[in-house]
Every structure is written in structure tokens, then in C-alpha cells.
From TrEMBL:
Sequence ranges assigned to domain Amino acid permease/ SLC12A in this UniProt record: 63-520
Native source organism of the sequence: Diplodia corticola
Pfam hit, one: AA_permease
Membrane topology: Multi-pass membrane protein
Keywords annotated in UniProt: Membrane, Transmembrane, Transmembrane helix
Name of the protein in its database record: Amino acid permease
UniProt-listed InterPro entries: AA-permease/SLC12A_dom (IPR004841), APC_YAT (IPR050524)
A molecular function GO annotation: amino acid transmembrane transporter activity
Signal peptide coordinates: none
Annotated Gene Ontology cellular component terms: membrane
Superkingdom of this protein's organism: Eukaryota
Localization per record: Membrane
Transmembrane parts of this sequence: 92-110, 143-165, 172-189, 195-220, 290-306, 337-356, 385-403, 409-430, 463-485, 491-510
């Protein structure tokens, strides 16, 4: 179908209640056109009455979520494991490297998302411009990776609660409390879910800002003990502990902490104004990483020695490095406050991960990569089947915690997510190159259109992301073959670290063997369905926006 250039020329036809597309869904077609039921879903722009965060919150609320949603156990707790295994030098380099990757993936994905804001985002793009089998495997990896996040957050939840409980309550009780809370949020009216995600994101931003300020005071000797930190741990302890092994482990933990920003494209692709929402997220999130993430990393290396056994993964009690530093400085009250922030924050990340993974699964069903009944939604707009499958899988992974120590299970879950994420990044890079090739071969004037959004300095961000993703693959293979503390090859460890990559390779091969799919030809690749053409009102608003001086445009980021 042609692009949607005029909302007045579009008619929404309700789908039958028993349609595979789902209860309450609509398919947009032009006036006078008949709906072809045999058309593949990715050839039709499907617009579904499914619950969206963007329907509930103000623009400021959406920006708060985009800034705070990924702040979870990876930054607040697991950073201690990176410091413990790699030392301060490896940790700073690894986190800085991954922060640049976030900017690159957002730049690469933004131009596709803004032009084609379709449900499914990168899975849809990979199917139409790259290869359906790779789209299937990458979509499954994204789903499993985000589902594993909720279980990993549950692991950290038990660790933090034991800061007060001192292991007086069985771990199964805390895991059950955590999962009941997560599931309950999805059973309540949608607005409560949205408000909790907003509140958790806001609290994490405020809490982390307070902790950064307190950390600076501690380093300067302003704590009750009066001890000044002048970089002594950089001078007296190994800066690059365990060499490339240490860096590899830090890089994978940094990937967990910085997180997969592909979900930003998934949410922006369903927004009413992707040109604004995705464009702003692409600019704001790298600044968040530079200020909040890198400040936290550097301050952590100055306050805590890498050989402190209280760090997560050490032989002592696992805890946030910031809580350890505040306790050592003799500060009371703030450590308890920060642990509360961590608990609320990791619960927020858990529900966000279920939200995202269920939407990925649903979008795969819309594209007929998995059975279409999974795409169905209930009367409240919740994707009932994809949500049920995701919650069941997440719960199963959560209770696996009971079979081993929290740190060991966390390593497994972290590895599933990390190895899945950089494989998805590779798919995004390949899809971007095929997308550009299709535009060139077909002579499409997309980037010459008024107010068109294109990747900054393309192809450099995409090439940088590809190189970094390959480096992460090398790190994953190396740390898997020869884990820290071992001098011999370990098959167990290799599978542990490479499980996400193995899943993608196997699923791609099996899907291709069954369906005999081929690479999409750039000359015939679909550049029409789901394409967003700016309306006259959008053009008018953008004209007004770009006539403003830069300082006024920056202020618009903080207005609702």
C-alpha cells in the first residue's frame, strides 16, 4: 500500500473478533481500497489498539522513562563485579566503549524508525531488507535477552534485600514476592503500570544524582571518617587486572549495564510523532550515558579497591559498590535510601523488560515469523498470549536461581542477554547497509524530503557499531574458552558465555532450512509499506521549531 500522507484519506476497518491479527486491531487502507486478507503482514501497515506507554504519559514523562529506564542492576550493582574482575582501567575503557555504541545504534536505527515507524521495528526491517530467517533468529534473541533481564533483576533483588534480612528468610520467598509484584502490575489497569515505570525512572535519576554528589563528597574527604581518596587504588592495585580476560568480562558487564537501546526504536515506532520522539531520544540518551553512567564508573574506581570481597562476585556479601563506599565513609541513612532506590529501580527494569520482550514476540507474530495467535490482544490492549508466554518463561528462569548461587545464576542470565544484544546490533548494522542499498538502487529520494532525518555522518556510526560488535563477539568467545581464574579451555564456560550467539546461529540455520528463505534483493525490497510521510501539520510544527534559536529548542525538551 502507499504511504500514509493524509490522515483524512485513511479509513480504519475493524478486524473480526476471531482474526489472527487480534481483538480490536485495525488495518489502515486508503479510501475505496479493498483489504486483501492474503497479504503478508509486513506488507501492510498494521495499527493496533494495544496499550502503549506513550498513550498514558506526557512528553516529559516519556523523556524521563527514556532517560531512566535502563538504570538497573547492571549499573547499580554489577559494576562491582566488573571492577572486581577487570580493575579500574579495564572497567572505564569498557564502559566508555559501550556508551559510544549506544550513540551509534541509536543513530543507525533512528533513520529507519522515523521513516518507517512500524510495529516490530528492527525485526520488521531485517525481514523486509535483509533476510527473514535472520529476522526470526534476531527477534527471538531479543525476546529471550530481555526476558532474562527480569530474572537477573530478581537475582539482584534477593541480594539487596539480604542487606537487611541477613539471609533469615529463604531465597524462594523473596523471588516469589518479586515475581508476584511484577505480574500484578500487568494485571492492574494499564495506567498503573505506566505510572510505576515513570516513578521508578524518575526515582533512579534523582537517586543516582544524589549518590554521585555524595560520592564526590566522600572522595574529597567530606565523610564522617574524613578519609580523602586521591586515586590510590589506581596506583597500588592492578589497573588492568586479568589482562584481556578482565577487559572481556568488563565489556560484557558494561553491555548489560548500558543496555540494548533497540527498545527505544520499538517504542518510538509506535508513537504518534516518531520524527520528534526518536530524534530526541537519539540526542538525549548519549548525554545521559556520559553524565550518569561514566560519572558513576569513574567515581566507583576512586572509592572502592578492586580486591574488596564485598563486591558482587567476590567471596564476601554481594552489594552495590556505592553502598560499600558510603558504609566505609561512616555515612548512615544514605546507604539504606540508596538500597531502596535500587530495589524500586530493578523492579522497574524487570517490568520494562517484560513489556519490551512481549512486544517483540507479538511483532514477530504479526510478521508471521511465529504463529499469528500470539499477536492477539485483550479488551485492555494487552498482548495476552505474548505476555503470558513471556511471564511464564521469565518466572521459570527466575526460580532457576534456587539451584545455584545468585552470582553464578546472574552470570548465566547476564551472558544470555549480553551475547544476544551484540548479535542484534550486528543485524541492525547489516539491515542499515541493505536499507541504504535499496534506497540507492531504487532511486528513492527519502533523504531529500522536507525535514528528513538521516544518520549523522553515515556510514561511520554504523561501521563503528559493527566493529565494536565484532570485538564483543571476540570477547565473548575468549572469556568463554578461557574464563578468569582458569588456564585451560572450559566447554561449560564457553556455552555459558556464547549461548545467545549459538541461539541466533542455530535458529537462523533451522528457519532457513525449513522455509528456504533468501536474502532480500535491494532492487525489489519493500520501501513503501508503513512509510510515514509528514502531514501538513507536522511540517508546520517542524518549520516553527527549526526557526527557533538553539537555546529555545533545547528548552523545548523540558516542556510538557
Amino acid at each position: 500500500m502507499d504511504s500514509r500522507s493524509d490522515k483524512e484519506s485513511v479509513k480504519a476497518i475493524p478486524a473480526p473478533a476471531d482474526s489472527d491479527l487480534g481483538v480490536g486491531e485495525t488495518i489502515e487502507v486508503k479510501e475505496g481500497e479493498k483489504l486483501k486478507r492474503d497479504v503478508s503482514p509486513h506488507m501492510v501497515h498494521v495499527r493496533t489498539r494495544v496499550f502503549l506507554l506513550v498513550d498514558t504519559l506526557s512528553p516529559n514523562g516519556k523523556q524521563v522513562i527514556s532517560l531512566g529506564c535502563n538504570i538497573g542492576s547492571g549499573l547499580l550493582v554489577a559494576m562491582g563485579k566488573a571492577l572486581h574482575t577487570g580493575g579500574p582501567g579495564n572497567m572505564v575503557i569498557a564502559y566508555a566503549l559501550l556508551c559510544t555504541c549506544v550513540g551509534a545504534v541509536l543513530q543507525t536505527l533512528a533513520e529507519m524508525t522515523i521513516a518507517f515507524p512500524v510495529s516490530g521495528n528492527f525485526v520488521n526491517y531485517a525481514q523486509r531488507w535483509l533476510d527473514p530467517s535472520l529476522a526470526f533468529a534476531a527477534g527471538f534473541a531479543e525476546w529471550l535477552g530481555w526476558t532474562a533481564v527480569s530474572s537477573a533483576e530478581a537475582t539482584v533483588f534477593t541480594v539487596i534485600v539480604n542487606y537487611w534480612a541477613k539471609e533469615s528468610v529463604h531465597e524462594a520467598v523473596w523471588l516469589s514476592v518479586f515475581m508476584v509484584f511484577v505480574i500484578a502490575l500487568f494485571l492492574l489497569p494499564n495506567k498503573y503500570f505506566a505510572y510505576y515505570v515513570y516513578f521508578a525512572s524518575l526515582l533512579k535519576i534523582i537517586g543516582l544524582t544524589i549518590v554521585i554528589i555524595v560520592s564526590i563528597v566522600i572522595i574529597a574527604g567530606g565523610g564522617p571518617t574524613g578519609r580523602v581518596h586521591n586515586g590510590e587504588y589506581w596506583r597500588t592495585l592492578p589497573v588492568f587486572a586479568n589482562g584481556f580476560q578482565g577487559f572481556s568480562n568488563c565489556a560484557l558487564l558494561a553491555l548489560w549495564a548500558v543496555g540494548d537501546q533497540v527498545f527505544v526504536g520499538i517504542l518510538a515506532g509506535e508513537a504518534d510523532a516518531p520524527r520528534v520522539s526518536m530524534g530526541r531520544a537519539t540526542k538525549l540518551i548519549p548525554y545521559r550515558n556520559a553524565v550518569l553512567y561514566m560519572s558513576s564508573v569513574v567515581l566507583c574506581t576512586l572509592m572502592i579497591p578492586m580486591n574488596d570481597d564485598r563486591l558482587f562476585g567476590g567471596s564476601g556479601s554481594a552489594a552495590s559498590p556505592f553502598v560499600i563506599a558510603m558504609n566505609d565513609a561512616g555515612i548512615s541513612g544514605v546507604p539504606d535510601f540508596f538500597n531502596v532506590v535500587i530495589i524500586i529501580g530493578i523492579a522497574g527494569v524487570a517490568v520494562e523488560s517484560i513489556y519490551i520482550s512481549s512486544r517483540v514476540l507479538r511483532s514477530m507474530a504479526e510478521q508471521e515469523l511465529i504463529p499469528r495467535f500470539v499477536a492477539r490482544v485483550d479488551s485492555r490492549g494487552r498482548p495476552r498470549w505474548s505476555l503470558a508466554i513471556t511471564l511464564a518463561t521469565g518466572t521459570m528462569l527466575t526460580y532457576i536461581n534456587l539451584s545455584n548461587t545468585g552470582a553464578e545464576v546472574f552470570t548465566w542470565l547476564n551472558s544470555i542477554t549480553s551475547s544476544s544484544l551484540f548479535i542484534v546490533w550486528l543485524v541492525v548494522c547489516l539491515t542499515s547497509w541493505r536499507f541504504r542499498a535499496a534506497l540507492k538502487v531504487q532511486g528513492d529520494p527519502l533523504f531529500n524530503e522536507l525535514h528528513a532525518w538521516s544518520c549523522w555522518a553515515w556510514p561511520f556510526p554504523t561501521a563503528w557499531l559493527f566493529v565494536c560488535s565484532v570485538l564483543l563477539l571476540v570477547c565473548c568467545i575468549y572469556i568463554g574458552l578461557v574464563p578468569i581464574g582458569s588456564t585451560s579451555v572450559s566447554a561449560y564456560s564457553f556455552f555459558q558465555y556464547m549461548i545467545g550467539a549459538v541461539i541466533v546461529v542455530v535458529f537462523t540455520a533451522v528457519h532457513k532450512a525449513i522455509y528456504r528463505t533468501k536474502l532480500q534483493d535491494p532492487a525489489t525490497a519493500d520501501l513503501k509499506s508503513g512509510r510515514h510521510i509528514l502531514t501538513a501539520e507536522e511540517v508546520r510544527l517542524l518549520d516553527v521549531y527549526y526557526r527557533m534559536p538553539a537555546w529555545r529548542r533545547s528548552l523545548s525538551y523540558f516542556r510538557s
